UniProtKB/TrEMBL annotation:
Similarity comment: Belongs to the RRP40 family.
Pfam families: KH_6, RRP40_S1
UniProt protein name: Ribosomal RNA-processing protein 40
Coiled-coil region(s): none
Residue ranges of domain K Homology in the record: 152-199
Gene Ontology MF terms in the entry: RNA binding
Any GO CC annotation of this UniProt entry: cytoplasmic exosome (RNase complex)
UniProt-annotated location(s): Cytoplasm; Nucleus, Nucleolus
Gene Ontology BP, a term: CUT catabolic process
Top-level taxon: Eukaryota
Length: 236
């Protein structure tokens, strides 16, 4: 799929084929004005057009704006009878229902505690109300990568741009490290990454490699990965 990029400023109009209007997929940094039938930028950054119908702006902002379909790492802040309120690094807490987990009933539902970390998927997002999340992948698969994240180490305050790049299967960081080091990882579009390994020394080395990769090109990332692999051999 072809991906086109250009720099855009707040208020600028994004042009699209009017025949595709009903099928547009609009992501962060853009607003569609129905009455004017125009699409405009609300943030400064790189306008990303993937194919003919998908548009979003890649910009560095530490506050997360929920987008339907995003994978996020949240922290339980409030526990109540109907579910949980979860911090997503945004302006509002996310709503997680008590039964919004894979293959659960009222008797088998998880009993998350305040402070617990979860890997979830955004299923509803609106500027005016709290976003909704669930710990399912939205398919009929019996297993899911979503749910409570136990143990490990949470990296927070990362740029959303870095997390989006790492989520790309063609990005070299996780594939290079994972080929030689056994570890678990969850990458959230909200600027958080969770790492778990069998030794704290390995975890610390992985965290450092991820943080260093933010401003590096692919070749330098591979170099950092090789150095990390060499460093953790004593714990493998």
């Amino acid at each position: 799929m072809n991906i086109h990029q250009s720099v855009i400023f707040p208020g600028e109009q994004v042009h699209f084929n009017e025949s595709d209007e009903t099928q547009l997929r609009i992501g962060r940094g853009l607003t569609y004005f129905c009455t004017l039938r125009t699409l405009r930028a609300t943030q400064m950054g790189r306008l990303i057009q993937s194919g003919k119908k998908t548009f979003y702006i890649d910009y560095d902002c530490r506050k997360y704006t929920p987008v339907i379909g995003d994978s996020v790492i949240g922290q339980v802040m409030v526990k109540h009878a109907e579910g949980y309120k979860v911090d997503l690094c945004g302006t509002r807490l996310g709503q997680l229902g008590a039964l919004a987990f894979e293959n659960v009933t009222r008797k088998s539902r998880p009993n998350l505690q305040v402070g617990a970390l979860i890997y979830a998927r955004v299923i509803y997002a609106d500027k005016e109300i709290e976003p909704e999340i669930e710990c399912t992948d939205g398919t009929d698969e019996k297993s899911s990568i979503f749910g409570e994240l136990k143990g490990g180490f949470l990296i927070h305050g990362l740029s959303r741009s870095l997390c989006q790049k790492i989520l790309d299967k063609n990005h070299p960081l996780l594939s290079t490290l994972g080929a030689s080091i056994p570890f678990e990882v969850a990458v959230g579009s909200n600027g958080r990454i969770w790492i778990h390994s069998k030794h704290v020394g390995i975890t610390i080395a992985l965290v450092q490699a991820i943080k260093k990769s933010e401003s590096l090109n692919d070749n330098d990332i591979i170099k950092i990965c090789r150095e990390t692999i060499k460093e953790v051999q004593k714990w493998l």
